[in-house]
Each structure stands twice: as structure tokens, then as C-alpha cells.
Specification:
eight-stranded mixed β-sheet; 1008 residues; 40 helices
Length: 1008
Amino acid sequence: MLWLFVLSGFSGLIYQSIWTHYLGLFLGHSSYAQSLVLLLFMGGMACGAWLVSRRSELLARPLLAYAAIELIIGVFGLAFDPAYGALTRWAYTSVFPGLGGEGVNLVRWGLATALVLPQCVLLGATFPLMSAGFIRIKENAEGEVLSGLYFSNSIGAAAGALVATYLLLPRIGLPGAMMTAGLLNIAIAIFIYPLTKSESPAVLAVGEDSAVNRSKPLPLFVLIVAALTGASSFVYEITWVRMLSLALGTTIHAFELMLAAFIAGIAMGGLWLRSRADRLESPLRTAGWVQVWMGLAALASMFVYAHSFEWVGWLMRVIVRGSEGYGLYNVASGIISLLVMFPAAFFAGMTLPLLTLALLRQGHGERAIGQVYAFNTLGAIVGILLAVHVLLPGLGLKLALAVAAAIDLLLGLLLLRRYASPADSHVKGLAWAAGLSAAGMSCALMFVHFDPLMLNSSVYRHGRPSLAAGSKVIYTKDGKTATVAVYEAPRHGDGAVSRSISTNGKVDAGLTVRPSDPPSTDESTMVLLAALPLALRADYPHVGVIGFGSGMTTHTLLGSSSIGRVDTVEIEPAMVEAARHFGVKVARAYDDPRSNIVIDDAKAYFSASPAKYDLIVSEPSNPWMGGTASLFSTEFYAFVPGQLNKDGLFVQWLQLYEIDPALVSSVITGMLANFSDVQAYLANDSDLILVASPKGRVPELTTSAFSSAPVREDLARVGVKTLRDLQESFVMDRRGLIAFTQQYPARANSDYFPLLQLRAPEARFKNAEVLEFDAVSTAPWPITQFLSGHGRRGAHDEQTSGGGLPLRVTAKNLAARELRQALVEGKISLDSSVTHQDALTAETLRSRAQSCTLDKDPVGTADMIYSLAMETVPFMSSSEQVDLWQSPSWMGCGASAAAVNDALALVGAASKDDHQAVLVIGQRILEGGGADEVLSSGIASYYVLGSMYFSAMATQQPELAQSLHATYTKRLPAVIARHPTLQLLARLASMGADRKPQSPVEGTRSQG
């Protein structure tokens, strides 16, 4: 029978995990929403246990009732997903639009309650019913039965937490996991039914003794102990999860490992007690010692935790950053979680069986099972609310844990005093317990120090168990949903001082402190998140910003007089408080009367607000952070257009670091499916900004962002002084993004199939990067200039530039002109941005040309020409390349070798955008006598075939591009055939004409 209760616990934890996902989508992820979701779970279970406690003794066959309840739970489980979908769709489309904010919240909570409360009540009834039925079958072994069932249910729950996250969600998503749990419940009901026939109605005669037992009140003291130990246990769990999140990371995998470790400890406590419970002389006295040891174990966990950062740092340094390494990291994370949680959880697993056993021995009957369970669950609710809303924000991690431990120690001492043995030794035992309690509490408070430099080190990312030398934490707070800190650290290389704000150790934004210091790359991202939309439209009366971060995006927006009200929605109050330490750089976010800071879940707030927006900017934390991935889902992108006014725009930040191309593709796929047009911009090499329009095209960039002096100053600080500087951030239009998603096909990230939430932690561990966007902007062909219609950067653009954004293309623009000078004039400065290899190539090629030896090694010479063309042609205007490639003045004498002349002709044609000539010359090269040498050369084959793809795209000949790909790809070196940029260009060229109409700008002319 125990194995059936293992399955019951298994399915129950799946429900809890999956319901949390479902209701988080509907109710939001604010601290209040999370607390209320837990209230529904725990409150429903307490209610179910209480109801059973009042009726179980009247049930002739409790196992039959248990089987019926499992069957009903299973049916509800199978019906949950379609019911959820129907109810939430009805609410969003028919109910919410006609209600105000408070009305929406009331309806939302009413529907959530209707969805899960019935199942929670039924789940709460299962343990008391199973216990009553099993006790009747196995008489005179109440302790063994209670402990065994508690172990079975808990170990099943621990397994359910892991299986749901690691197996079910990745394969069958939320609907499949819910269906699996439902089928398990039905199977349990089927298997338990034959056992119900062994129940004997005669066992439970409803007579005078039974009536006396039912009228006899349960000892209030024992019930209060059950409630308080439940409260302390959940304070432990919530505090440990927050603590370990700082060491292991705030990911779905880390959370489920912590939860499984905690529940496994409870299960093992029940297992240890199973063979001993019925031999105990006084269960309540034993419970007293258990409470003392539980409190001491919780205090000892502080000492263990203080070393966990060193262990994680060592792991990150020695484990190979691959898929197998991530598996090992998860195993190690589970072990660390066990070391911290298991001892105290082990003792927690004994308290409920001991308290229940004591009441059964006192003759209170089966109702004691449900009532102790109900009080314990009600205590858990109090513990959750106390931890989230009082202890963590008010006292911090260490003292919150100490308060919970003090409750357990005090309970233990009270139990030992109240239920002391008549023997004289009880005084000595009580003294020992008091002495140990005092010593443990004193040691923990005096000798354990949670160093802020350690807590905020982000060791799970970099492997460093402390912030860099010279760092200084200037603010730290354990908020309601996360631990937030602000710290200063010297920046490597330029001596600047950077001030960063972090959430659970993960830096969300970093700004330099001194006005004279160069800006951080994060500053360019936050300024561009505001400046790009300001350059796309003349005015935005109502703006919404998702995520406060440092406050710089809101600050920059409010620098424009064309902005009306800005609602900045932040889920964690401590973030808003902490960001004040950035001072004048974010002052308008706090001081401007147009700024409205809202503490809430973004989707919940927007859906409850009747107002619509002209612009929504979404800059949440990284998608692997808990609760954040839903802001990158296709359902969220379907929701956003309904919150926008006509011609409204949506701006999305997306990281390109610690993520892989398939995951980025899953986000872009969701956006493309829900917006009419999407364009991509780079703020720096690792931050992508997506601008989307629900209807029609995204407008062209204009100078409107520069019309307000404060915004103009903010842009100048990050290197943007002209419209051309701003245009340089463009990387792909909708067609380019479609080609990217085709190259890296992935299912759209969905709330119900949370691809991003499940796979992003592994990508973070691997230090994965998405280099394709940067590679396209610095490709050997002017792809981004062609897609945008902006043309190639001219000499005037370079002279009036503000220095440019921290992009690789900015450095390439400068290096191209220095290379031209090196080749044409034979000069190159010592502080040149040209790479040593390119400088050597230019010197060698010029030397050969001057000494008339270009033909001595024609293939090598051609490769040098192609190599230098890659670094110059896309980054300068055609007029700047006349003496470089079109009529090369650096050639002392001509060449006779076909390979050299063809290379010069191809590059010359490409430099002046003569696309028909490029196609003709390219075809001659690939079909001529030296074709094999060209196709076997990595440099030559890459440049020649890429140039033909680009010219085919420019002249709108997709069939030609497809033919080129089919004919030559198989003849290329493997590394070139798989080159991501060449593959992407081939896809773009093969898609045909679908780009915006362009004016006749330098570099965009098409021939024919």
C-alpha cells in the first residue's frame, strides 16, 4: 500500500509545481501573488484535512473514500488545462475590458480559486483518509503506519519535483504534465479499490466510547505546537531557497533541486521513525528533543552555507562547461542543497507523526490525524507570509533563519518541561537541552557572517566566491522576491569605477560613477532602449516600461518633451529603493512628475489597467532568472498588441550572452508570429534590441530623438551624436530575422512549453554566445546597410561621429580607413585599431605591388586582396575606395595572372556596388581554370561566393542564389560551408525581394 502513497505524493507535487506555473501566468509573479497562490494550495489542503478529521471516524471504509477522492482528483487533473484555457480566454476577452483595476483583481482571484481550490481540498483529505484506513488494517502499529505513510508521501513528492522539471516539462509541457498527474491519480484509485475490501466495517462500531472520544477536545497545546513547527519549517524552506539561490542561481532547476532536498529530508525523518515510533515511551517528550535538534540543525546550516560559495566556485572552475558538465553541476547543486537543508528537514519529518501518535495514544481517535495535519498546514501558511513579508525584508537571511530556529528551540524546551519523565533525570535533560540551545544560538549569531561581497559574487556564473578586490557594497536588502544589492568595483583596463545593481547576485545594470569615466556597455543599452523609439516617432503620450533596473531607461525617456506619462512596472520594491544610489544618472525616474513607478507584475498590471500605451519597453532580467521567461513568450507577445494604441510600438531587450542561437530564435519566432514588423538593433556586441509594430512597418529612424537637449546629452555620452551614429545600431529587418529563425529552427518559447526557462540555465552554464548578429553587422558585405537602406558609412559620417556605440562595427569603420592609408600611402599609426595580421597583410600586398611580384604567388596574392577587401569594402563609401580598389594607386605595375586580376576586378566592382559585374566576374572565377583553387581556399571561396549571394540579393534574383547554393556549397571547405554568416546570407538572397523601398543612397543602388 505504501508504494501507492508514493505515487500519490508524486502526483501531488506535480500538481503543486504545475499549478504554480499556470496561476503565475494568470495572477502574476509579484510577492503578493506568489503568497496568495501558496495560500490557495496550503489553505485548501488544511481545509480538506480538517473536514476529514470531523468525519473519518464515521466512515466505515476510509480507503474506499480515499480511492474515490483520488479518482476525482484525477478527473479534475485531466480537465484542468482545457478549463484553464477557456476560463482565462473568457476573462481576458469578455470580462476584464469592462472592469476597473480592483474589479479585475477580484475576478482574477475568484477564477484562480475556482480552478485549484477544489483539488487542494481533496488533496488535503488524502493523508488523513489513507492513514485511518491503513491503521484499521494494521492494528496496534499507529506509529509505524503514520511514519511510513509520511515517508512514502514525502519521498514521492521529492521525486515528483525532479521528474516534473527534468522530464515532463521539457517533453510534454504544462498540459502533458498535468495530464500525467491526472492519469496517475486514476491509476491509484484503480489499484487501491481491491484493498478496500479488506476494510471491516465492524472495526468501527459507533458506540458510546467512540462518541466520548469525538466529544473530547484535542489538547490545544499540541495543536499549537503542530502549527508553530509548520510555520518554522516553511520559514526555513523559504530562507534556504533564497540563500541557496545566491550560491546556485535563480533557475527552475536550482529551485526544484532545493525543494527536492528539503522534502527528501522530511521523508528520511519519517523513515527513521517508522520502526521506532511504536516503542517510544512518550512521543511528545521525543518530539521535544526533535524540536531542539531541528533548531540546532537549522543554526548549523548557517555554517555549512557560509562555505557553499567556495564549493560552487571550485565546481565552476573544474567542471567542463558542456552538457555533461551541467548534469554534474546539477548533481553537485543537489548535494550542496542536501548539506544545507537535510539535517533540519530530517527532524522536521518526525514532528507530525510524533504529535499525531501522541494524540492517538491519548484516545482522541482518527480525527487527531486530520486536525494535526490541518494545524500544521495552517502554520505553514503563517510561516510563508511571515517569511516573505516580514522576516526577510525586515531582518534579512541570517536573522530570519535564527528566529525560526528560536521558535523550534523554545517549542522543544516547552515540550520537554511539560512532558518530562517522572524520573529525576528529566531536570538534567532539560538543562542539557537549554544549554545546547543557548550555545547553538550564540555561536550562530556571533560566529556566522554572511559577507555581502560573497553573497553578491554571482559565483554560479563566474566561479569567483567573492566580488573583485577593491569592491564595496553600498546597499543590500533581502526583498520580498529577491536579494538586491548595489556595489562599486574598479573596472579593469581604464581605471573607471563601476556601480552595479544585482538581483540574487546577477548584475542587472552597471553604470560608471564619475562623470569623467567612459560609459559602461550597459549604459548604451539602457539609453538606446529609450532613444530608438524616440527616433521612430514624434511623440508618445503614454509609455509603459517593464522592469526598473537602474532606472536609466525611464530617466532617458523622460528627458524628451515628447513623452507624456511613463508607468514603470517593477516587481521587487527593493530594486526601486536600491537604484537611487545611481544618483543624477537616473534622477528623472524619481523626480519627474510624469514618472509613475508601480510595484506589481507587469502583465497583471497591464491587464488590470483600462489605459493603453503608445510605447511599451520591456527590459526584464535575464530569461533564466526565475519567473522572467514568461516575458519572452509567444503568449506575452500576443498579449502586448492589445495593450497598445494605434501605431503603438513595442521594444524588447534580449541578451546575446549566456544564451544560444536556438533560444534566441525561440523568442524571435514568438515575436514574428504576433507582430506585423520586427527590426533588430545592437546596443553593444551582446545586447539586442527588438522593435516591433503590431500593424504596419516599423518607422524609419529620424533625428527626432536629438530634438531634446537632455536626450541629446545622454546619447552623446554613449557615443551617439548624429543620426548616422544611431543608424549604425541597426542589424536586421524582419526578413533577416526570419532567415535567422530558419537557420536555427526552434519552437516559439511558450508559457505552456517553457523552452527558455528550461534550457537557458544550461546555456548560461556553458557560457554560450550568439555571435550571428554582430557577425552580420561586420560581415565582408554591407548586409545591414542594404537591409536598412542607410548605405555605407562615408568620410563625413566618420568625421562628425560622436565616437560610436561600443560595437565591433564602430572599430571596423575606423580600421578600414587606417587600412586604406596603409595600402595606398604605406603609413599606419602606432596606436592603430588595425589588427597586426591585417597590417602585415597590407604591408605585404603593397610590397608585392611595388616590386612587381604580384604574379609570383597569384593564389596567395588573391587571398590577400580578398582578405583586405573583407575589412574595407563594407565599411567605407564608394568614393573613398576609388584609389584603393577601383583604380588602385598602390600598384607599381600590373599583374598578368588571372587569379590576381579577377580578384581585383571583383573587389573593385563590389566597392562601387556594380552587382551585375560582381555576378559576371564571380561566375568567371568559379567556372574558370582556377576554380578548384578558389573553392579550396577558405578566404577566397568565402568572399567570392558571399559576394555573389549579396549581389543576387541586391538584384532580387532568389533563383540565382538558390542555384549558387546548390552548385557550390558541396565543393566548399567544410568550415566555410557551415559558416553561419554565409548560410544566413544565402537564406536572405534566396528569399527574394521583401525589403522596404529605399532611396538612392550610397551603397544601395541595384543594377539591371
